[in-house]
Amino acid sequence: MPNKHSGSSIVELTSVVAIVAVLVSSAVPAVEGYYDKKRLIAAAEMVYSQLQKARSEAIARSEDVYVQFNVDDGQDWSLGLSTNTGCNPDHTLDDSNPCFLTVDDGDEVAGDGDRVLQTETSKDFPGIRMAGVTFNSDSAKFDYVRGTGKAGSVKLESAGGYRLKVITSLIGRVRLCSPSGDAHVAGYPTKSCSW
Length: 195
Fold this sequence. Notes:
Helix content is 27%, strand content 24%. It is built from one helix and ten strands. Strands 5-2-1-7 form a four-stranded antiparallel beta sheet, covered by helices on one side. Strands 6-8-9-10 form a four-stranded antiparallel beta sheet, with helices on one face. The protein has a two-stranded antiparallel sheet with strand order 3-4.
């Protein structure tokens, strides 16, 4: 009668472990690329939404609203919304000239308690570089009469080399695009998206 084995041999287990290791190691770059693109998309969508918010706030408040960009080396960057020109997005409400909007807390009296900090930083988007801001004085201005703005753009690039660009036109239109080629992020138009 043949001898029946109920378990696996060391050679079989070693082979299975080796196969699993090869499969996992080949999947890691794909997963890293996926998250690299997701962080870039999140950063670009945030910049897009802050520019849109500034335009909407300018019209609603009947007051010009600015988006101030502060870019140190591309890796460290911040932006902030304010009705004050030249605000510093790296400042808190306790510092001089922070980026804030006044939001009534219900008592219909404008005071320090109504100041709400309106800033975003690169710390929330690791590995995303702000490759260039083309607004004059690194500040996008939206006019309160028609929501028109300064023409300019913000270029964002991931650690893996993917690129997205946020563009604002003179009429205040804000759009996202991605240049063609290896840096392209699927789902975003390439038309008129020079880098």
